[in-house]
Design goal:
By secondary structure, the chain is an alpha/beta fold. The chain is built from 11 helices and 8 strands. Strand 1, helix 1 and strand 2 form a beta-alpha-beta unit. It starts with a strand and ends in a 16-residue tail after the last helix. Bound molecules: acetoacetyl-coenzyme A and 1,4-dihydronicotinamide adenine dinucleotide. 1,4-dihydronicotinamide adenine dinucleotide binds next to helix 1, helix 4 and strand 6. Acetoacetyl-coenzyme A binds next to helix 2, helix 7 and helix 9. One of its GO terms (molecular function) is 3-hydroxybutyryl-CoA dehydrogenase activity.
């Protein structure tokens, strides 16, 4: 299948990064969010990232402009009518994702593949909202997208081999390394990462260490590039909580119970970097 045009849904931290790497790889990209200010914010971050590449000599000004020239923005899902692939990166809410996939199924051409960047929601369940479950797949990028090499490619129960191959090839064209995984709660990445982050929040809640102390232990003691609380702030505490809920519901095992302090921060609107405050404060 020849891919020309890709629609990316959600111009937040993941959608913006995904749109950027797709346009850098030469694809025509349409980026959709629900409000003008959100698409504008997404495009501003992309433009800043590309300008840094120019400053660092990794790209010319002309190349930057060509990348931006391949991108357009929209508020309308109907603009999915002529795309080959959709990569969905909207908020981690099963109902909103299911409704969006049902709409995409109605709008997009028959050959189009519908991929989700969900962190943890079952691909099989998202696919069931469509009449083309064989063309629905998980394409899970890591944050920050322009930097991180991994794409976890998740097969739902009905995902076809052909769909898998197209997404595996696309990931490589985006200069990423795809890894195939099956559709189980949290896949591989977040089944392992999020319990560690959740445990760090428990350690904080129980007074075992301070925010800085816990992060320093993991940075200097385990050579993690970022401590777990700093990483939680990068991911977004709402997303971290949503993933823990999926693990807890999916396995019905108390070892995955979300830490009450994590829930308290989310209830307070302290979502990490994106809201200006999480375990740390950001200006
Ligand atoms: C929740 C999920 O479903 C799955 C997930 O994504 S889990 C999260 C996975 N991600 C991680 O674990 C990230 C862990 N952290 C890291 O790897 C590193 O701290 C980091 C790459 C984020 C930053 O690296 P660093 O060396 O500490 O800082 P810094 O020197 O500022 O950045 C390194 C490079 O990354 C770039 N970078 C950092 N953040 C960036 C961003 N948000 N967007 C684009 N580029 C970014 C910087 O510009 C810099 O590029 P140059 O080499 O051109 O200068
Ligand atoms: N934050 C992270 O580290 C990672 C997140 N993910 C997943 O990526 C998805 C997005 O996460 P983030 O970018 O972090 O969230 P974010 O909160 O930064 O961005 C979400 C964006 O989606 C938009 N949106 C909401 N409903 C929409 C709709 N119906 N149509 C189009 N846009 C809509 C919001 O306005 C917002 O701009 C989630 O599914 C999340 O689980 C995956 C990998 C890593």
């Amino acid at each position: 299948m020849e891919i020309k045009k890709i629609m990316v849904l959600g111009a937040g931290q993941m959608g913006g990064g995904i749109a950027q790497v797709c346009a850098q790889a030469g694809y025509e990209v349409v980026l959709r969010d629900v409000k003008d200010e959100f698409v504008e914010r997404g495009m501003a971050v992309i433009t800043k990232n590309l300008s840094r590449n120019v400053e660092k000599g990794r790209m010319t000004e002309d190349e930057k402009n060509a990348v931006l020239g391949r991108m357009s923005t929209t508020l309308s899902l109907e603009d999915g009518k002529d795309v080959d692939i959709v990569i969905e990166a909207i908020i981690e809410d099963p109902k909103i994702k299911a409704d969006t996939f049902a709409e995409l199924d109605r709008i997009c051409p028959e050959h189009a593949i519908l991929a989700s960047n969900t962190s943890s929601l079952p691909i099989t369940q998202i696919a069931a909202a469509t009449k083309r479950p064989e063309k629905v797949i998980g394409m899970h990028f890591m944050n920050p997208v322009p930097v991180m090499k991994l794409v976890e490619v998740i097969r739902g129960i009905a995902t076809s081999d052909e769909t898998y191959q197209v997404i595996d090839d696309l990931s490589k064209k985006l200069n990423k390394v795809p890894v195939e995984v099956n559709d189980f709660p949290g896949f591989v990445s977040n089944r392992i990462l999020l319990p560690m982050i959740n445990e760090a929040v428990y350690a904080l809640m129980e007074g075992v260490g301070t925010v800085e102390g816990i992060d320093t232990v993991m940075e200097l003691g385990m050579n993690h590039p970022m401590g777990p609380l700093k990483l939680a702030d990068l991911i977004g505490l709402d997303t971290c909580l949503a993933i823990m809920e999926v693990l807890y519901d999916g396995f019905k095992d108390t070892k995955y119970r979300p830490c009450p302090l994590l829930r308290k921060y989310v209830t307070a609107g302290w979502l990490g970097r994106k809201s200006g405050r999480g375990f740390y404060t950001y200006s």
